[in-house]
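Notebook p. 47: complex prediction with pyridoxal-5'-phosphate.
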Amino acid sequence: MSTNAKMAGSDKAGKSAHPSFAPWQSENGELLIGKVPVRQLAARLGQTPFYAYDREKITRRIKELRAALPSSVRLHYAIKANPMPAIVGHLRDLVDGFDVASADEFDVALDSGMSADNIGFAGPGKSDTELARAIAGGALVELESPNEMERTARIGDDLGVTPRVAVRVNPDFKLRGSGMHMGGGPSQFGIDAEHVPAVLRQLGDLSLDFHGFHIFGGSQNLNADAIATAEDQIADLAIRLADDAPRPVRYLNIGGGFGIPYFPKDTPFDLAHVGARLHDTVARLADALPKAAVIIELGRYIVGEAGVYVCRVIDRKQSRDQTYLVTDGGLHHHLSATGNFGQGIRRNYPVAIATRFGMEEEETVNVVGCLCTPIDLLADKIAVPAAEVGDLVAIFQSGAYGKSASPEGFLSHPGVKEALV
Ligand SMILES: *Cc1c(COP(=O)(O)O)cnc(C)c1O
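Predicted complex, structure tokens below:
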């Protein structure tokens, strides 16, 4: 019998069941991922720890986005959030394009079968080799500096190709409520808005095929109103900058930054609100820049909630007044869950005993990894059903910035596996 975790939890000890558990099903107390019981999945993979991504949840998220956003808006997946080839392959037919931030990500994007016409390449510090790979492969190069613009033109000449380019703009306003700012003040990203007109005039004299602008304000934002306002300001800025462009704007990447809730007090992102306000913004753009395709690029929002990190309890010990569940996982696989990837203060990700899912909470424990460092803390004083050695632990909201954002070599423990289920 399948039970909804929240409902099962509300039975007895459910008062503190984490909101992020609600969408996940269980069967006889075992978490199901892509309908597969978690122990069976562990047996199939032949090891813990592993990341498992629920294919259906990714598909559903794209459907929600399509339903909420204006139909003319093109949806891109930012591969940086999770570059697993199976995920990128799954998304190939669901999104309109990919954004990559390295030449190797570009390879993953092309291997999926996505046309280079729909791949943008952003990121500071592109080497000549990376630029050559991007230009030869036909990516849209998002220029991060005047120097990069000149090198792109020169490398294009060498290759006998006219590079497709957009100008990445560091906006002159800041996005409110963002976990990670990437605009507003001084920044290594993009060209300051006030310098863009001069750069555009220079661009017109080089053999570069100008497509438009890329303006990205920040990441992990749960404030839908702030995002909608930023999108509006980005539209204004693009319309203003277009006056100095060598050709009509055909490409306008207005960023993304939609966040997902990690902590009990986080309010889920109000997608409907952003969608509604974006209709006006898009109508204004259609008037002012009629040739411009409007792109929203999202990473975390597409894959973050679909992923679970699973590790096994190796030891259970008491120290003074506290109980520790020691697992075979840790920050070498999942740096974000320990609060060491871009978070200001350390808070617990949603963590549950996957083999006693939705059961009554009986004790308070700390869940730690196997690394010999005190920062390897996966959960700090959480209420759980009494767990034993051999039980599996699940960390939810782990589909983005997991494996590829973690220092897998640190302390030379075995690596982590991944499965798209
Ligand atoms: C990191 C990044 C993204 C993805 O951000 P998410 O918060 O994962 O959606 C998109 N665009 C650019 C330019 C980025 O640097």
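Notes: Residues 224-242 form the longest helix (19 residues). The longest strand covers residues 307-319.
Next step: compare against the earlier run before touching the bench.
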